[in-house]
Amino acid sequence: MKRRTYIVGAASIGLSIPIVGESGRERKDGHIRNRNKNENEMQAIRNGRAASTDPEPAYTLLDGTKYETEVYVIDAPESGPTGVVIGGMHGDERSGYHAAAAVSRWQFDAGRVVVLPQANQPAIKAKTRHGVGGDLNRKFPPGDEPTTTLAQAIWNDVVLRSEPDFLLDLHRSKGIYRFHDSFVGQAIYPTDVGDAPSNAVDTIASLNADVVPWYMPYHDFKRGNVMHGTSPLLAHKAGGDLQVPAYIVETTTFLTDLDTRTRWTKRAAEKLLSLHGINRATETERNK
Ligand SMILES: [Zn+2]
Description:
It comes from Halocatena marina. This is Succinylglutamate desuccinylase/aspartoacylase family protein. It holds the Pfam family AstE_AspA_cat. Keywords: Hydrolase, Metal-binding, Zinc. The protein is α/β, with parallel strands linked by helices. The chain has a single domain (6-24, 57-285), classed as Zn peptidases (Aminopeptidase), CATH 3.40.630.10. The protein is 32% helix and 17% strand. It has helices spanning 6-12, 37-46, 94-105, 121-126, 149-162, 196-210, 234-242, 258-275, and strands spanning 59-61, 69-75, 78-87, 110-116, 166-173, 187-190, 222-223, 246-252. The chain has an eight-stranded mixed sheet with strand order 1-2-4-3-5-8-6-7, with helices on both faces. A hairpin with a 7-residue loop joins β1 (59-61) and β2 (69-75). α3 packs across α8 (258-275) and α6 crosses α8. The longest helix is centred in the last third of the chain and has 18 residues, at 258-275. The protein is globular. Residues 89-90, 93, 171 line the site of zinc ion. Zinc ion is lined by residues 89-90, 93, 171.
């Protein structure tokens, strides 16, 4: 299909489709997935802990520079694998870094989760895709040193330092796959390592069954191309250099609001973490 504008694309799938907001919280089976905030807080109080505690960062990356940004490390009670979760590589992809920030507040049953929610502070502050020196997610050549100060810090002081068993990189896209030729739509891109491709398929199936509303079939997630460590993207490099499963998660702006994109991205992260043996500790944490 030829490239189409948003309006033509919208018409082709029916302009009556509403923007997904609160109504999108209803599952296909009719159950309300999300509890309201008060109920969560009451449950938290019954469980004997604070309702909302912002975590302390474990350390600051590039402290004292324009790039400085916080890194969070969540150690679960039981030993297990280590996952690295990155958000905010592109400064205008808010759902990615809101979702990563949520992950930094989660608790898990086993393993360790290292979270860099806002990788590209100059870009986030400027609300632009690129920050300093162009596209940060093109500065990670496989088999070579990353090519900017920030990319080197992310690679050496977050990824290598964590000795990860897998990595998630949370982004947001535009358009709908195949309706808008230049956009990737909703997709999860796995590396070619281990179970990453099948984990991507399982996560997509879960999202499409439980999260994407039935009236938005064109928003079903797809599995993106397998990454072979051949491009200078962080996830490519993790797969190529470290031979670990890595994933890029893309959630579209097309007919969605920020809250919906963030929620879908969080669910993708939660499922991928779970498939790697890192399960969230309690149901009451789900909405945070
Ligand atoms: Zn991106």
